[in-house]
Amino acid sequence: xxxxxxxxxxxxxxxxxxxxxxxxxxxxxxxxxxxxxxxxxxxxxxxxxxxxxxxxxxxxxxxxxxxxxxxxxxxxxxxxxxxxxxxxxxxxxxxxxxxxxxxxxxxxxxxxxxxxxxxxxxxxxxxxxxx
Length: 131
Prior knowledge:
mainly alpha
């Protein structure tokens, strides 16, 4: 991670002509420079931008320059891919149960609103709400 787009583009160009990524990361990274800019594991839920950039990379390959937080730019080198572990039964059961409860709640709410609109003969004039 660096603080200038120009520097990020220059580093990307150097890496593409076989410059040592780890050495450049140690020298220029503002994030964890002592460890070569290594940021550790990130997931789709935790860091969507980096996940999206890394998900299709092969091991050892680098991403294009990514615009991160305002004024910060990153180039990702994929050093390890974690294989997802299957959910244990109780966790999977809880997730499925939550989805089904939410679906049933939404359906009940929609039915209730529809029934009330019909019962009280509510007229809706959406056309007057539009500018």
